[in-house]
């Protein structure tokens, strides 16, 4: 479970980027995090993962406060950033073993997971190449593979499908559904409204740092008294009125 309580964030000389955000993400759900560019999605995710400090409020992951119990919280989530340009001077296999070492994944377990996941993503034969030689999509795949190695209970994914070929995107979506079906949590941001509509159990819409809607698509239809509007139509109406 992810608990975001009264969270605010501002940067020097600017208005609040996040303004008293409250959001409770239950276990066993895939939750899509939506908003236009500059709405505060990536800032929220970076606070959730400890990349950015929280100015006001608290964020806890499975009961661990990200600022007070940082190490405990970081052991239980996997994070895919919006830009996969990390550790470019390492070879693919070096990077995966580095991540596995950090999370103390046993040798036999990591070998099985590395082989299985990278074969699913069709990058197994490129593991001896340097990450800087990878395409954007391949870099995304190696980062996702690293996230899955220690089997975290919470997945926090910032635009995870960007740059993936259709087969790999399908495989990742299937993995997300399987993870949620095990009673675990998937929280991901996306600009792909059709994907969110097809895949997510619940949707959170943010704009100007404030939560505009959170609930199921059925909740959305009931709230806005419309059975025929798509997520895209409701999203555009909500964010254009801000």
From TrEMBL:
Which residues does the UniProt record annotate as the domain ABC transporter?
A: 2-233
Q: Which keywords accompany this UniProt record?
A: ATP-binding, Nucleotide-binding, Transport
Q: Which Gene3D superfamilies match?
A: P-loop containing nucleotide triphosphate hydrolases (3.40.50.300)
Q: Name one Pfam family in it.
A: ABC_tran
Read off the SUPFAM superfamilies from this record: P-loop containing nucleoside triphosphate hydrolases
Give the molecular function GO annotations: ATP binding; ATP hydrolysis activity
What is this protein called in UniProt?
ABC-type transporter ATP-binding protein EcsA
The coding gene here is ecsA_2
